[in-house]
Amino acid sequence: MDTSGIFAQFERHITLDEKEKLSIRSVLIPARLKQGEFVETVGKVTSNFIFVNLGCLMTYYTDAEGTDHVIQFAMAGWWTGDLHSFTKEEPSIYSTRALSDSEVFYLPKTDMEALLQKFPKLERYFRILFQNSIVSHQHRLIQNLSVTADQRYENFSKRYPSLEQYVPLKYIASYLGITPEFLSKIRRKRSGH
Amino acid sequence: MDTSGIFAQFERHITLDEKEKLSIRSVLIPARLKQGEFVETVGKVTSNFIFVNLGCLMTYYTDAEGTDHVIQFAMAGWWTGDLHSFTKEEPSIYSTRALSDSEVFYLPKTDMEALLQKFPKLERYFRILFQNSIVSHQHRLIQNLSVTADQRYENFSKRYPSLEQYVPLKYIASYLGITPEFLSKIRRKRSGH
DNA sequence: TGACGGACTTGAACCAGGTTAAGATTTAGT
DNA sequence: ACTAAATCTTAACCTGGTTCAAGTCCGTCA
User: Fold this and answer.
1) Which nucleotide's C1' atom has the smallest distance to the CA of B36?
2) Rounded to whole angstroms, how far apart are CA atoms B39 and B95?
3) Strands B48-54, B102-108: parallel, antiparallel or unpaired by DSSP?
4) Residue B47 gets which letter from DSSP?
5) End-to-end alpha-carbon separation of chain B, Å?
6) Which of A23, A96, B22, B92 pairs with A41 at a CA distance of 20 to 30 A?
7) What is the dihedral sign for C-alpha B113, B116, B119, B122?
8) What's B45's DSSP letter?
9) By a Cβ cutoff of 8 Å, what residues of chain A touch chain B?
10) Helix crossing, B169-176 with B180-190: angle to 10°?
């Protein structure tokens, strides 16, 4: 499986020589996923950080009533997974699955830790990645607290136009924090009356 | 100003020798804040990352209608600030101010970058810090999407009991994503009818 | 090709939480 | 200590969004 995509991402923030790339490549586990396939399921400890090479994944929480709440989508070039379970080594409370046929690389936690020890520039890479991620999370929080569902949908469409082709509307509704029914109403109003 | 608190935090994840501590100490800017005093204001680029040595700070967003939305509180031992402005060097959209008389250390961005270059273990420290922060942000998002305001208040009180003594209820309401009036209703019901 | 299930829409009744405005209580400044 | 301002509460009314139930429009697989 082609590793140019993942190294392109690394090289947005750090530079890697061939030896380093080789070390990284040697621990990445490539996998192909069918649409709908689960990567992580509730109750098991997540042992991999996940890079999306191709396709689209989503991570969601299922509450006590059985309602799903989408935490994040992940498109090609993004890292994803259940950071809670991965970090604390507690059973996962989220599920991650493919929204389309996808290719991913798994980076097992133990290998990731070894790499971070061996190549401190990777600490830097993930520090920057996580720092940016916090900024996005704060932005989303603020959106949920300060603008109407209608506006959130408009902003979402503008910000992630490519997601609308992969993602069923019901998951977009969930991401926006509303029901599919209400998203339907918003869309009707929006498309002229 | 006493730097033992900040080094105790560093040493939760990494170990530092005296030389390294000296380097860090030499760039930290200590400051005392009066209750209500602003640390960062909307419109200016944030050039400091902030460590709370004593007291309590909060960061909030003021929307188009003039309503404040609390992004985060920060107590003694926590890092805080406007990570958006700090990272992207864009004018701040958030305000940060002291909720009580406080002591903080400012870590200027240029100094922080130099330290990170010089001591890669600091990359590690902040990588871990940010990774944990993402977990908290996701937890809060999920809470906002899946439980009632009533439950959120209960969870908040349990999780941050020490905050209730510093923080006016209207800011707790804002953090929970509700109005002060509605929080009042919740509290009334809660305290025995 | 038909029938099954998943995704999307519609409409009506309903509710969690918002809005407004007024009063009660605490806090802070001089 | 006195006042002004900020915080907190109460109550009546309002609305964005939910719930539930029914119906439509696919894609898919025997």
Assistant:
1) C28
2) 8
3) antiparallel
4) -
5) 48
6) A23
7) positive
8) B
9) 61, 63, 67, 69, 71, 83-84, 87-88, 116, 120-121, 123-124, 126-127, 130-135, 137-142, 144-147, 174, 177
10) 100
Lowest mean pLDDT among A37-51, A144-158, A166-180: A37-51
Nearest nucleic acid nucleotide to A181, CA to C1' distance: C9
Interatomic CA distance for residues B123 and A184, integer angstroms:
45
Beta-carbon contacts below 8 Å between A and B: 100
DSSP string, B60-108: EEE-TTS-EEEEEEEETT-EES-HHHHHH--B-SEEEEESSSEEEEEEE
CA A20 from centre of chain: 25
Q: Kindly determine whether the C-beta of residue B159 is less than 7 Å away from any atom of nucleic acid strand D.
A: no
**Quick check: A92 and A50 in contact, CB under 8 A?**
no
Q: Which nucleotides of C are covered by protein (CB under 7 A)?
A: 7-12, 16-21, 28-29
Which CA distances in Å does B130 have to A165, B27, B192? 32, 21, 40
A192 pLDDT more than 90: no
Q: Where are the beta strands (DSSP E) in A7-83?
A: 29-33, 38-40, 48-54, 56-62, 68-75, 79-80
Residues, CB < 7 Å to strand C: A 168-170, 180-181, 183-185, 187-188; B 35-36, 148-150, 177-179, 181-182
Report how far residue B142's alpha carbon sits from residue A60's, in angstroms, rounded to the nearest whole number.
9
Distance of CA A107 to the CA centre of its chain: 14
pLDDT confidence of residue B43: 85
The CATH classification number of A4-119 equals 2.60.120.10
Q: CA-CA distances (angstroms) from residue B81 to A71, B84, B128?
A: 24, 9, 17
DSSP conformational letter for B53: E
**Beta carbons of A87 and B132 less than 8 Å apart:** yes
The rounded distance, in Å, linking the Cα atoms of B35 and B183 is 24
Nearest residue to B85 via CA among B133, B121, B110, B49: B49
pLDDT over threshold 80, residue A146: yes
Count of residues making up chain B: 193
Looking at strand D, which nucleotides approach a protein CB closer than 7 A? 7-12, 16-21
Distance A101 CA to D30 C1' (A): 24
